[in-house]
## 1
Amino acid sequence: MSVTHFLIEMSGWAGAVLILIAYLLLSAGRMDGRSKAYQVMNVIGAAGFIVNSGYNGAIPSTTINVIWVGIGFFTLWQGRRLTERPGAPYLSEEAATADAGGETFGAIPGFSHLDDVQAACDLPA
């Protein structure tokens, strides 16, 4: 095995390990999927897969990992890690304004009438 082939194989294995560690940390609740660290681990891991699969002629794997890297870079570029409202990280300005005003459905066309519905009973605190 040549040094070049060895390094290419190692880039694939290192990428696999990095992506698996990121997924393990995410699944264990130790890392946020929108965090910079998670995205960087995925971008670097997928880059390792691109080198390995590209060298070995695995075009489908190369393609999906190029897309994976693109998504990671887009997320890093966007730089919107939500801290105040988990679960709604990328609201449009209109939806965020509606959310801040207490409207739940107002930003969804055809559903604004649901904001006026009164609860049938009080829920326990």
## 2
Amino acid sequence: MNRMSVKEVAAYIGASEYKIYEMTRMKAIPHYRIGSRILFRTETIEDWLRTQEVQNCRSPQEGQL
């Protein structure tokens, strides 16, 4: 299993480490903990990013036809 740290995820998605910590507190990004360490599965982050892209591309009237 490939995993990434907060620092690695921040660099991977182009966000600050502070923002990643904030997103984990809000449960807005998939993660898991081992003790006090926050870790992310690479595959899960890639899936999450694809989902975010799709959600951001939908038009507000999609599904209303």
## 3
Amino acid sequence: MKFESLDFTEFVPPKSSLEIAPVLELKPLRSHLKYVYLGANDTLPVIISSQLNANQELSFVNLLKQYKKALGWTMADLKGISPTICMHKILLDDCHSCWDIIRKNEVQRNYKIFMSHQRSMYKHRKQEEALKGLQ
């Protein structure tokens, strides 16, 4: 068995979100949640409870800012995962093809179960008919 080596000479690692903030599409939140931003110019959003008082919110945001290197907004922010090895798209909004595959597998499995049950019933009937014929 022969394997090709991966060429990493052309690969330029992506910049982390702390260096170049990504443009993210923020979705409306429920009333008990709100966005706060850890970066300048409303960048690096995080979701927190809107029920915190001003002092709690300030303390929590300062804590998050202190450890914002631990948070990940993009794949480049996740330490230990090389984008060259693991690059795929996760379909969150429209994953019909995933569900189609799951349904197809489930239908095939149920069909196999049904057919094995039908076969055993057929064998049982044949045995009953054979016994009736002997009597």
